Amino acid sequence: MSVQSLENTAKRCRRSIVDMIHKAGAGHPGGSLSAIDLLVALYGTQMKVDPSNPESPTRDRFIMSKGHASPAVYAILKELGFLEQSDLDGFRSLGSVCQGHVDMKWTDGVDFSAGSLGMGLSFGIGTAFAAKMDGLDYQTWVMLGDGETQEGQVWEAFMAASYHNLENLHVIIDRNRIQNDDFVNVQMEIGDIAAKVESFGWNVKEIDGHDMSHIVEALQWSIGTAGPCAIIAHTIKGKGVSFMEDNPSFHGKAPTDDELQKAMEELA
Predict the structure, then answer these.
(1) How far is CA 69 from CA 31, 115, 116, 217, 252, in A?
(2) Is the pTM of this model over 0.90?
(3) C-beta neighbour count of 242 within 10 angstroms
(4) How far is it, in rounded angstroms, from Cα 100 to Cα 94?
(5) How high is the pLDDT of residue 181?
(6) Can you give the pLDDT at residue 166?
(7) Total domains present in the chain
(8) Domain hosting residue 83, numbered range
(9) Are strands 203-208 and 169-175 parallel, antiparallel or unpaired?
(10) CATH number of the domain enclosing 110
């Protein structure tokens, strides 16, 4: 896909994200909007997946560790044909395939059931190991939130992946600087996260997480570089909707009717 096509897809996904959260009256718009450019580029240029065969053993795996950003995942899966609009319309409703957190038992195209933060990279190590043990060449991609890296298990996983030289494992950190209650540096400052990840033996690249051409280049770099790679994507929480941007209150809050109208006008 061209950069322009990817940007157009990301805009459609942003509208889907805001719409499904509004219909549900609950959800996490901020981190979904900060991550969607990254997901669109990933699925549009790298992920080998097939909606007609979602359980293919050779498919690439994507682990959304910050699983409350499920609307972003559902939006791109709908674009790819894994989901229908009716599925998105049922977001967070009882029995829907689009649960509040991504869940591999419910949704085709989802490879990890999220809940408590901090577990996704460890799970990703398992899938990367499995590929090697089974003699398969699929890639495993993991998205972490920056607030999530305050958890010790994340760093144990970084250490283990480097030790085992898992070159088929790739991490994208959505560095939007806001977590559940406030800005990350208010809750617990994580400092120079790129330097920290690099010190654990990873290859690291920092990018503008909303510049589609830079994202595409970074994803290709990760595929072509030996050893585990991490992309630190500097993003804006709530990107694309003015009143949500850099606003901690929209970490987990649905827009009102009036806010929905304003958001859709800005995303037109």
Answers:
(1) 6, 11, 13, 24, 9
(2) yes
(3) 11
(4) 10
(5) 82
(6) 96
(7) 1
(8) 3-266
(9) unpaired
(10) 3.40.50.970
